[in-house]
Design a protein that fits this description.
- This protein has about 775 residues and is α/β, with parallel strands linked by helices.
- Helices cover about 45% and strands about 20% of the residues.
- It contains 28 helices and 22 strands.
- β5 and β6 form a beta hairpin.
- α8 packs antiparallel against α9.
- The radius of gyration is 42 Å and the shape is elongated.
- The N and C termini lie far apart (about 95 Å).
- Homohexamer. Organized in a ring with a central cavity.
Length: about 775
């Protein structure tokens, strides 16, 4: 074995690094460390000291310690109580750890002694390093109380750079990690660099610390007067018999009456004790007081009694809403399960539909039917995660999140909580509220919901959550997966009539002070209002029109002393003004390049004309009408399909090089987009290219593929309603939407022939008026 490699007992140190020439006391208590010291004393009194990377490791191995340690000579051993040995040792040489073997009684290290650091021959470099290090140490020791003037003077006497750095490394108060870096520096230059970095960083930290202390001192001086005044106010309050003491007594009394778990009670008592200790500090006392009041205000184990009368619940739902059969059935199923199981898993229901279709009012009716407290939480525009989870109490002005605040407001742990406009949640640098809602709306997790302000798990499993949204596409998919989606589609004209007669008219008469018998709105006037004064999926616009009639009637009753305000079609303009909307009726005569399409909007379905012109040119393909990316791609797909089957329809090969094709959808100021206009644009282009007219009593919807296959679409009910209003007699629908049509009421489909198609050829055969049927069939075959 080389003279530089040897085997000796090893002691692993926790939080201590020993350098050469360093005399230090340290304690050993682990059996293996004690045995290693005893083994060293029985031979040459030398032991290898190596530092643990993690002080918490009880039985370190080779990878739990640093690679460089120190060979030290034991000078003295003092036995302490409980088997602890206090060692006085002097570091001698650096050594690199090669192996760390575990003998029966102690650790044995195979080490390689590291040669002394290289010397610098250039005297100018040594002198520069010496001066620089002395200057750094002088600045470091100037404001450091742990470096005495005498010690500083003794260290600066060294004119050898190696001795100077050794003495500085040994005597400055640094962490064991920093000292380890100095130990591992093999060359003089590396050691100089490491020590210089440590001193420079400490000098900078001292400067910042001094600046902060000056600012704090000035603030303390400024607040000294306020402190004296607060103490005087405290004495005055004590003399008057009020103040924090009365609050503390009240808090203790309320806590004793509280019905909650031991964990909650312990936390409240702990916070009351804290408040008692900090009540002299107004700022901290206010924070503690607010926290106690929030904990006492939460309904930890307080519940309201739910109804067990299923027929009563059905009656309330029928009274408050017309139609909405699926929603009512789902609520009654939930109630039935709760009656049988006494609790049951609280479902998370999401009502999705256009504005004004009664989603929010459904939640109110459900709460009334179940005799539950009703809490509405509006999520539209919420962008801060703390709105859901609460603010941490480290913030100034911290408060609970909206969920915890809702429970506080309800006063019971089993309310109905409406999460309104859940599709309009935003996100920014403050976090993603929709991600925070994942825990709230998961029945497997919400029994231990953590609010950052409350800090104690809150049980949300008894809360009946109902969410509302206009568009399911904008809700993150993980959130959708945690909810049961119930779609509320647009109302038909007949449904709007029933809703107006049974709910809206009486509601607005009461709101505007009109008594029964003072206002009569005839059915023909209602029908005219629905068709000519509103264009919507819901009934909000209709309700506003009825409210306008009520206001006008109230004025007539007071000014003209009219006893009855009779509203009919012929005098409706006197109440509402000129009609705002007209339903476009489709032309009867076939036209070339014009096709009726069907589209879904946020206010219901509409008919959409697609116009195509073909002009001599250079093969340009133009798209106008504020089309979105999806519709532009549908047009590109359609023209590619037409070019692939050009011979089938007698289109010459050079047609697309010598002609321009222009697709336009009227009302260019209105943005349009969606995956359901493909078949409409292809049909219009085929008609314009072949110069064959299209029937105008038909409408169509569906997306097309490059091979001519027709894909399914959404919003079918609204689209068919729009087609029926426009006088369409035949509607072409993708074959895969057949189940959707079968679920529709006969009120929607009566008088409308619905043709199911799988490919665009099936549409073209029926809507394009071909000059010779036999020739077309031959081409198609």
């Amino acid at each position: 074995m080389s003279n530089l490699i040897r085997v000796m007992p090893a002691v692993t140190l926790r939080g201590v690094t020993i350098l050469p020439d360093m005399i230090v006391h340290f304690d050993v208590s682990r059996d293996k460390s004690v045995k290693a010291v005893q083994s060293a004393m029985s031979s040459d009194q030398k032991v290898f000291l190596i530092t643990q990377r993690d002080p918490e490791v009880e039985h370190p191995g080779l990878f739990d310690v640093y690679k460089v340690g120190t060979i030290a000579k034991i000078k003295q051993i003092v036995k302490m109580p409980e088997g602890v040995l206090r060692i006085l040792a002097e570091g001698e040489d650096r050594a690199e750890l090669k192996q760390l073997r575990e003998k029966e009684e102690y650790l044995e290290a195979e080490i390689e002694k590291i040669k002394d650091c290289e010397r610098i021959e250039d005297d100018d470099v040594k002198e520069a390093m010496l001066r620089s290090m002395k200057e750094l140490f002088i600045v470091y020791g100037k404001d450091n109380p742990r470096i005495s003037k005498q010690l500083q003077k003794e260290i600066l006497k060294n004119d050898d750079i190696v001795q100077l750095m050794n003495q500085i490394s040994i005597n400055i108060p640094v962490t064991y990690q920093q000292r380890q870096k100095i130990l591992e520096a093999a060359s003089l230059a590396d050691r100089y660099e490491q020590l210089g970095l440590i001193l420079t960083k400490e000098i900078q930290i001292r400067g910042i610390q001094s600046e902060l202390q000056q600012k704090m001192q000035s603030q303390i001086d400024k607040n000294q007067k306020d402190y004296i005044l607060r103490e005087q106010m405290k004495v005055i309050r004590e003399e008057l018999g009020d103040g924090a003491k009365a609050d503390i007594d009240r808090f203790r009394e309320e806590t004793e009456k509280l019905t909650a778990s031991k964990e909650v009670m312990d936390q409240i008592y702990k916070e009351i004790d804290h408040y008692e200790n900090v009540s002299n500090n107004p700022a901290e006392g206010a924070v503690s007081r607010g926290y106690i009041e929030n904990l006492l205000g939460l309904p930890w184990n307080k519940t309201s009694r739910e109804t067990k009368d299923l027929s009563r619940a059905r009656k309330i739902l029928e009274e408050d809403h017309y139609g909405l059969i699926k929603v009512k059935e789902r609520i009654l199923e939930t109630l039935a399960v709760r009656m049988l199981t006494r609790k049951g898993d609280a479902p998370i229901i999401c009502l999705v539909g256009p504005p004004g279709t009664g989603k929010t009012s459904i939640a109110k009716s459900v709460a009334r039917a179940l005799k539950k407290r009703y809490i509405r939480i509006s999520l539209g525009g919420v962008r801060d995660e703390a709105e859901i989870r609460g603010h941490r109490r480290t913030y100034v002005g911290a408060m609970p999140g909206r969920i915890a605040a809702g429970l506080h407001q309800a006063g019971v742990k089993n309310p109905l909580m409406l999460l309104d406009e859940i599709d309009k949640i935003g996100s920014d640098y403050k976090g993603d509220p929709s991600s925070a809602l994942l825990e709230v709306l998961d029945s497997e997790q919400n029994s231990k919901f953590i609010d950052h302000y409350i800090e104690i798990p809150i049980d949300l499993s008894d809360v009946l959550f109902i969410a509302t949204a206009n568009d399911i596409q904008t809700i993150p998919r993980p959130l959708v997966d945690r909810m049961e989606i119930i779609e509320i589609s647009s109302y038909t004209e007949n449904e709007k009539m029933h809703i107006a007669k049974e709910h809206l008219i009486s509601k607005q008469m009461k709101a505007n002070g009109i008594k029964k018998g003072q206002l009569i709105i005839h059915d023909d006037a209602l029908e005219h209002m629905i068709s000519s004064y509103t264009r919507e999926a819901g009934v909000r616009g209709l309700e506003r029109s009825i409210a306008q009639i009520c206001r006008r009637s109230a004025r007539l009753i007071l000014e003209e002393k009219k006893t009855v305000s009779d509203v009919r079609t012929d005098n409706l303009e006197a109440y509402l003004g000129k009609p705002r909307y007209t339903i476009p009726k489709m032309g009867k005569n076939p036209e070339i390049g014009i096709v009726n399409g069907l589209a879904w909007t946020s206010v219901g379905g509409v008919t959409l004309e697609v116009e195509v012109n073909v002009m001599p040119g250079k093969g340009a393909f133009l798209l106008t009408g504020s089309l979105g990316d999806i519709m532009k791609e549908s047009a590109q797909t359609g023209i590619s399909y037409i070019r692939s089957v050009a011979k089938r329809y007698g289109i010459f090969d050079d047609f697309f090089k010598e002609n321009d094709i222009h697709i336009h959808i009227p009302e260019g100021a209105v943005p349009k987009d969606g995956p359901s206009a493909g078949v409409t644009m292809v049909t219009a282009m085929i008609s314009a290219i072949t110069k064959n007219p299209i029937r105008q009593d038909v409408a169509m919807t569906g997306e097309i593929t490059l091979r001519g296959r027709v894909l399914p679409i959404g919003g079918l009910k609204e689209k068919l309603l729009a087609a029926k209003k426009a006088g369409i007699t035949t509607a072409f629908v993708p074959d895969e939407n057949r189940p959707d049509v079968e679920e529709l009421d006969k009120e929607i489909t009566d008088g409308l022939a619905i043709c199911f198609v799988k490919s665009i050829d099936q549409i073209l055969e029926k809507v394009v008026i071909w000059p010779k049927t036999e020739k077309i069939e031959e081409n198609v075959s």
